[in-house]
Amino acid sequence: MSSQYIGHLKQCQICSNNKLELILDLGHQPIVQNYLTKEQLHEPETTYPLNLVRCGDCGLLQLNYIVDPRFVFPRNYPYRTGLTNMLIRNFHELADQLEKKYNLQTKDLIIDIGSNDGTLLKGFKDKGMRVLGIEPTDAAKDANTHGIPTLQTYLNATAVKNALKKYGPARIVAATNVFAHINNVPELMHNIKNLLDDNGIFISESQYIMDIVEKLEFDTIYHEHLRFYGLKPLAKLFNLHHMSLVDAERIEAAGGSIRVFAKKGRHPMSVRAKKLLAAEVRAGLYNSKTLREWGARIHQAKRDLVALLITCKKTGGRMVGIGSPARSNTLLGFTHIDGTFLDYAGEKNGSPKIGLYTPGTHILVVDEKKLYKEQPEFALILSWHIGAELIKIFRKNNYKGKFILPLPHPKIIE
Ligand SMILES: [Zn+2]
């Protein structure tokens, strides 16, 4: 792994331009998945700079500090796709769409990069297609146990060689929620191209910069997400690597994402992708003044949220968190919302985070049943991007307190 892509970056990750402009400084933050045991609370905790910068040439918004991926995605990485209902629905829909759109046959091979527990591939396997996952964390073990063949490794030249030797080239290579996570972009593109057959389709899903800007979703910025894609820098990226961005659509996953289709060689861009690109330009996503104003709105949102929580706490009510997704640790860390405000955060039964403490802010994660039993007066929805869904579930389960939605504008829901 080249050290050129670890630590403080002075060049754009896509086009190597060195005109990088600071858009948002979120302070130094720990790795969002580094939940701590009670014992670890007595030890020092490592934090890293978390800055969003903009490339003056291709317009890519990106981090300018890359943490060694071995620390960001350790083998015991706790996230499991199969625990998130919205992602399960999204992946079923994706498998159906691809089967129709590309007339997939049972002989076709589908490779998923960063396949986690195999949730996406299961949809294709159920349709009778050949599938292969590539996944560095122990989620690979879960996938293999459930009959989804998975190589437990980072995507690298050896993994590509092994996959090709045993399975041949792929009709589809998917990278959902991982295409913005891998640090060495030229090597990544090289590996993807080698996995694809000549008419193969590369499909990525990444959080979309349009949603992040529109909805003030700065909490999706953490050290796992190295790049925040719009179609303009993506088109340039594929072009630089002799591929073409052929189609794109907005999807709901992860608070608003972009699903992008690319092929080897030179091909035209679809009408709907061109329209999205034009909308990005109109929204000012490639304009540094618009983006700096967006940064200022985030600072204001932080002050407004803290002010609201202080007002609530003054009533004497107890306050807890709902959910403890990775992204909430950027929200909590940047706003300094810690045990001063939240007694604990409730996660769904079965979450590996239960019994541990949030990185940086040290809030205990408990089974959400505690919340139903104790009925705290205020519940801050940390998974606010699926807030409406959570409010329904918590009301159905008889939670009687008030909900607080932190973003884009903090508000109380009675
Ligand atoms: Zn660039």
Folded structure, characterized:
- With 414 residues, this protein is of the alpha/beta class.
- It folds into three domains: 3-66, no CATH class; 81-272, Rossmann fold; 289-413, Rossmann fold, CATH 3.40.50.720.
- It is 33% helix and 23% strand.
- The chain contains 13 helices and 19 strands.
- The protein has a seven-stranded mixed β-sheet, sandwiched between helices.
- A hairpin with a 5-residue loop joins strand 12 and strand 13 (257-264).
- Helix 2 packs across helix 3 and helix 5 runs parallel beside helix 6.
- The longest helix is centred in the last third of the chain and has 27 residues, at 288-314.
- It starts with 6 loop residues before the first strand and ends with a strand.
- The model has no long low-confidence stretch (mean pLDDT 94).
- Zinc ion is lined by residues 12, 14-15, 17, 55, 57-58, 60.
List its salient traits.
414 residues; alpha/beta; Rossmann fold; 7-stranded mixed sheet; 6-stranded mixed sheet; 19 strands; 33% helix; globular; binds zinc ion
Summarize the structure.
The protein has 414 residues and is α/β, with parallel strands linked by helices.
Strand and helix layout:
Elements: E1 7-8, E2 20-29, E3 48-55, E4 61-63, E5 65-66, H1 69-72, H2 85-101, E6 109-113, H3 119-126, E7 130-134, H4 139-145, E8 150-151, H5 157-167, E9 170-176, H6 185-195, E10 196-207, H7 209-214, E11 227-228, H8 231-240, E12 243-251, E13 257-264, H9 271-282, H10 288-314, E14 319-322, H11 328-335, E15 345-347, E16 365-367, H12 369-374, E17 378-381, H13 387-396, E18 402-405, E19 411-413
Parallel strand pairs: 6-7, 6-9, 7-8, 9-10, 14-15, 14-17, 15-16, 17-18
Antiparallel strand pairs: 1-5, 2-3, 3-4, 4-11, 10-13, 12-13, 18-19
Bound molecules: zinc ion (ZN).
Zinc ion binds at residues 12, 14-15, 17, 55, 57-58, 60.
